[in-house]
Amino acid sequence: MELRHLRYFIALAGSLNFTRAAERVHVTQSTLSHQIRQLEEEIGQRLFDRVGKRVVITAAGETFLAYAARALREIDQGLSELKQSAASLTGELRVGTTHTFNQSFIPDCMARFLQHHPTVRVIIEELAADAIAARLEAGQLDLGVAYRPESTSGLQFEPLFNEELVLVVSAAHPLAARKRIRMIELHREPLVLLTPGFSTRRLLDECFAAAGAEPSVVAETNTIAAMLGMVTRLPVGAIAAPSAVAPSPALRMIPMENPTPMRTPGLLLNREVPQSRPGRAFAALLRKQAMRAYQTHAVS
Q1: Alpha helix locations (H) across the chain?
Q2: Last residue of one domain, picked from the residues 81, 116, 132
Q3: pLDDT of residue 298
Q4: DSSP letter (8 states) at residue 236
Q5: Hey, which of 35, 74, 101, 123 has its CA 20 to 30 A from 237?
Q6: Between residues 233 and 79, the one the model is more confident about
Q7: What is the mean pLDDT of the segment spanning 170-183?
């Protein structure tokens, strides 16, 4: 069954006259008659009865008409939406993101977005994951990019990719030459970590406990920048997502295993609030860029 079959069927059902229906859909009467026969053969039931010169819709035709009309309305609405999406976007886009993704991922996505949609006014707010969730629920953001918050309540969380956390040390650190490191090897190792209020810290505490390791936490901070600043100045390590660490010859990133701490970044949306056109376009770009990032991590 093809789309034209539905259009021909609805045209004939609306006029019950082959000549007028053929004119409406811009085909010959014989073409229309042939297409209706094809549709009836595929369905296995007659949709119209020919009584002399009159055309009468059957009970099966009446039943099918409601569904066919609804399907065409949905298709036409979708085509209209696609045409609008192809046109220049305007309006405002409000995005909440955590610090990790505001380092490079969000700026890169935003630059690409504004290249294609320069008339959209973009507002980026760097917030904690729980604050992003609260702002989304209050209708103050269009979408968020974060790790899954503790409670999503009425929000929709859409995973983008998985990201392994790594040990970050200075180039002069005794562990700098390591290719990989087991978490048990960090037992009593001096580390600077995020404060316990962060879900990433709670994940790390669970991983250390599973490995039977107790690192020496010499400092705690609520920013990645402060952690990395201490790493460059002291013989300590930090644990962070690679996306949060700017490339630097002064730093080394070492994958961890047994277990490997892993976070899942994702899109946060308010399922009760219809997405704006800029919101849908930016969400689509985020998914595309996230797939590229995942493929890059997989290859490396």
Answers
A1: 3-15, 18-24, 29-43, 59-86, 99-102, 105-116, 129-137, 199-211, 224-233, 277-299
A2: 81
A3: 45
A4: -
A5: 101
A6: 233
A7: 96
